[in-house]
Amino acid sequence: MFKIVASDLDGTLLTPEHKIAPYTQEVLQRLYQHDKHFVFATGRHHIDVAGMREELNIPAYMITSNGASVHDADGNLVFQQSLSPEVIRGVIALAKHDPDLHIHLYQGDHWLLNHENEALRDFHDSFNYQLFDVENPPTDNVLKVFFTRDDLDHEKMVKWEQAFNQEFKDKANIAFSTPWCLEVMDAGVSKGDALAAVAKALELTLDDCIAFGDGMNDVEMLSMAGKGLIMGTSHDKVKQALPDNEVIGSSADEAVAHYLEKHLLNHA
């Protein structure tokens, strides 16, 4: 029986309104009472996720920035892998001439953005961006660089994925978290590798882990865990990358919580 439950957030554990629904919260609290370890595994920033963990009111590891940062159940930073200055400068130099791209950086405790966007401010309750200059971007302690578009045009983002891979494939892990959010981390960073580190810290293995996700940035985690579940609303590329993995329902129906109650709590 699985002892570690790892879940992506947006499109997976959270509602379409990006909240932890009451039923999901109840199930996760019951899992904790049955000695299961819960792990947030997300592309979001650790400060953003810490607020959700406080709301959930259980100790939980946090894999954030797609695995570039890991905090233990007490909130201590136990792992961090930054991007190289070469990759940071390189992807920004390529992307800065596209006026429709929003260029984001997670640097330490900060979220940086290349220009104002009120819709993005509204997305996060208590964690907001600061502006940075693309002509002189920070390069120290940057966990990831990521790119979004207001028009949500996936095919245009695919062209940027191809351009970045052509230049930096061996130096960066480049993956979509959603069809319209392209993320760039260090080559050695993934949610799967971070989950392996969490399992080891808990004196367990990846075989003890069950994981849920919906994005290409979840593929390593879903393939490395003892069992990896794909959301039914995932992009086709995720399902094609993991053809043998079970597909469940949607975040709108709290499919993760229902699966956990049926398969873990009812057998606990």
Automatic annotation (TrEMBL):
Single GO term (MF): hydrolase activity
Alphabetical UniProt keywords: Hydrolase, Magnesium, Metal-binding
Superkingdom assignment: Bacteria
Cofactor(s) the protein requires to work: Mg(2+)
InterPro entries associated with the record: Cof, HAD-like_sf, HAD-SF_hydro_IIB, HAD_sf
NCBIfam families: Cof-subfamily, HAD-SF-IIB
Family: Belongs to the HAD-like hydrolase superfamily. Cof family.
Name this protein carries in UniProt: Cof-type HAD-IIB family hydrolase
